Amino acid sequence: MGRKILTVDDSKTIRMIVARAFKKYDLEILEAQNGVEGLAVATREKPDLIILDYTMPIMDGFEMLTKLKSDPELKPIPVIMLTAEAGRENVMKIAKQGVRDYLIKPFKEELIIERVARVIDLKPRGESVSKVRRYDDALDILVVDDKPAIVEQIAGGLKETNWKVEGSSTTSQAIERCARKVPDIVLISLSLPENGAFTLFQMLRAGARTKIIPVFGLSVKTAAEDQARATQVGFTGIVTKPIDFEDVKIKITRALGLDTSFKYFSHKDGLLHLKLPAAFTPSVSNDIVTNLRNQLTEAVESGFDKMLIDMSAVNNADITLIKLGLSSLQLCNELGLKAALIGSPAVTKECRNYEETKDWRFVATAEEALTLMQSGTAVAA
Length: 381
Description:
This protein is α/β, with parallel strands linked by helices. Helix content is 40%, strand content 21%.
């Protein structure tokens, strides 16, 4: 199954229309009838896109959107808002909250397909599966900015990757560059003169070879009006200056659906090994959770029956770590995998203080974990 779309709407008819619209595409359609259910499904499934109704009982779209954007693991998920004509002004007001696009009800199936295609790649069912690109594959990134220092800064910030950064200072140069070779990602300064960023965006979307390229806007944090406009017209996302390059990498990885599982998962000594990095952030956790079920399922299908969750490099048992640990152990239990935990002294000690983790049992080394699991001893409760 391909990507996941979550539809949150109290109208069964709308949910049916969305499901029918994407029937021919390699998508899994998830459904919820209010914001409370929607948050639960989003937390569990981590969809690639949420189609969210503005007016619903129990929890409306605005409240759900606010909660989504306040959760580090759910914040990156793009949202398309559905509204009645009377609610259009409300949607415009909350565009700054992170709404990628909006649709006014009633709408035709063709229109919602077009809007969704701006955000995620739609692949027809039965289409031959191309090789999934990895985070460490070579990428071609075009930065369109009339300030050479910005291009140099971005190239320097991504130098440890295999991603090549090239700059264009004008709209015409960027179009010529795309005609020679279509880039994987385009970053456009929203402050280009004469409305250049939005002109270029429309030209890219009109081109047969460039219409599906993820396009990000570059903007200073205070240029809220430019950012809201870029979001409205369909930019994939916004990169703010000063640039947080870890955030840029996450945005590019998500936009292209790059495989990052190899950074955390490996197979050795007859078990599935999950190694958490020292810089364990909510974004890293989200990365791992996105791959978790597939990795465990593939391990079981390949004959593995053990999993090692290595937290030895992490020095703080915060809520993000605990949630990941609980999810991993629950999934292991569902799939019949024996699980073992390795923890740093700090994590081992801190986990004793929480009700959810006080019964977790840690070992010091992979060898000890393997020995105990082979003997049938439960290592992780």
